[in-house]
Amino acid sequence: MTSSSAHRRLRIVVGKPGLDGHDRGAKIVARALRDAGHEVIYTGLHQTPEQIVETAIQEDADLIGLSVLSGAHMTLFTKLLALLKERDADDIVVFGGGIIPTEDIPMLMEAGVAKVFTPGAPTTEITGWVAEHFDQDAPN
Questions:
Q1: What predicted TM-score, i.e. pTM, was given to this entire model?
Q2: Reduced to 3 states, what is the DSSP secondary structure of residue 38?
Q3: What secondary structure letter does DSSP report for 98?
Q4: Separation of alpha carbons 67 and 113, rounded Å
Q5: Do 49 and 84 form a contact (C-beta atoms < 8 A)?
Q6: DSSP 113
Q7: DSSP label at 5?
Q8: Edge to edge, what strands does the sheet with 39-42 contain?
Q9: What whole-number distance in Å separates Cα of residue 48 and Cα of residue 140?
């Protein structure tokens, strides 16, 4: 694994879709990704999948990270993935976390979510996953 100063700077949109008003976890993840050297755009609370996709396209994002605590994860993730496909932006990798039952994770991944982090996942697990999977073309 490369050091944080050596990897490619990614553009990552962190979104809080839906009506859930708890964003401490999303802010912690956004800060950890920023501290790992990436450019992070946090969309704020109560965003629609349409707003998050629009932000990701406008910001030329490499990844979108969603935080869903409301129980609407299946609807929100699949809607966002469909919108990315409609906008010919399905090269943007989607990952996420929140209160997501273990039995739903395989369905989300089959739908196109690259990775799902469960509650309590250390930020180093998230930043490590990003580094491992998206820093292949890092400068040496």
A1: 0.91
A2: coil
A3: E
A4: 13
A5: no
A6: -
A7: T
A8: 39-42, 11-15, 63-68, 93-98, 115-117
A9: 39
Q: Which amino acid is at 95?
A: F
Which residue has tokens 């369905």? 107
* Residue type for position 44: G
- Structure-token match 């950890």, residue found: 32
pLDDT, tens digit, for every residue of 108-136? Answer: 999 999 999 999 999 999 999 999 999 75
CB 22 within 8 A of CB 69: yes
Residue count of the chain, please give it. 140
| β-sheet bridge partners, residue 15 | 66
DSSP class per residue in 66-78: EEE-SS-HHHHHH
Q: Residue 1 — pLDDT band, cuts 50, 70, 90? A: very low
